[in-house]
């Protein structure tokens, strides 16, 4: 299956884009834009390994709070520490170092964050995408099965409908 490396999700649905990237074992960054919001899906050998977003609700701290793994006070404290370190330490590392979350809770939070970002993309009725064959070196590599994720997202959409 061949998909264009850039286009509109109305013409090429997200599921087709992800499946095409999986089939070609693509490595790189899928960037999606919609109404000033930007979301990124990182792939390695066709597998989703991470996702990021400019939406404040998609930030790791917010996800951990929503999952009841972190308090707002602990998040604010960790964010202050992050500013003091001039961004040299990632938020997740600061949360674990200070005992605000366990490494396992952080991992679960990261995986939930990635799944939530991708889920939110399936709710977009419109938007543009572009795929580039490069991945930032500072991301945490998670392995997320695309077929299982899409099945999970379909189930989630049915439940919320």
What this model shows, in words?
With 161 residues, the protein is of the alpha+beta class. The protein has one domain (6-160). The protein has helices at residues 14-23, 60-66, 72-84, 91-97, 103-122, 146-160; strands at 6-8, 28-34, 37-44, 47-53, 128-132. The chain has a 5-stranded antiparallel β-sheet. Strand 2 (28-34) and strand 3 (37-44) form a beta hairpin. The longest helix has 20 residues, at 103-122. It is globular and about 45 Å long. It starts with 5 loop residues before the first strand and ends with a helix. The mean pLDDT is 88.
In terms of DSSP E residues, the strand content is 15-25%
User: Main sheet?
Assistant: 5 strands, antiparallel
pLDDT < 50 stretches: none
Helical segment tally?
Answer: 6
End-to-end Cα distance, whole Å, is: 30 Å
Oligomer: single chain
Radius of gyration computed on alpha carbons: 16 Å
Average predicted local confidence, pLDDT: 88
Q: How many domains?
A: 1
Order of helices and strands: EHEEEHHHHEH
Number of strands: 5
Query: Which structural class matches the secondary elements?
Result: alpha+beta
Neighbour order of strands in the largest sheet:
1-5-2-3-4
Percent of residues in helices comes to 40-55%
Q: Based on Cα principal axes, name the global outline.
A: globular
């Amino acid at each position: 299956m061949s998909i264009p490396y850039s286009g509109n999700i109305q013409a090429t649905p997200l599921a087709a884009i992800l499946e095409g990237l999986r089939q070609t074992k693509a490595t790189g960054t899928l960037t999606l834009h919609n109404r000033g919001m930007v979301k990124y899906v990182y792939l390695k050998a066709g597998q989703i390994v991470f996702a990021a977003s400019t939406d404040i609700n998609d930030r790791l701290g917010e996800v951990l709070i929503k999952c009841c793994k972190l308090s707002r006070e602990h998040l604010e404290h960790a964010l202050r520490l992050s500013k003091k370190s001039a961004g040299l330490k990632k938020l997740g590392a600061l949360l674990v170092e200070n005992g605000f979350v366990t490494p396992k809770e952080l991992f679960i939070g990261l995986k939930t964050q990635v799944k939530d970002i991708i889920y939110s993309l399936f709710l977009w009725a419109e938007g543009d995408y572009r795929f580039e064959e490069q991945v930032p070196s500072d991301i945490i590599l998670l392995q997320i099965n695309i077929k299982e994720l899409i099945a999970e997202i379909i189930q989630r959409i049915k439940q919320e409908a």
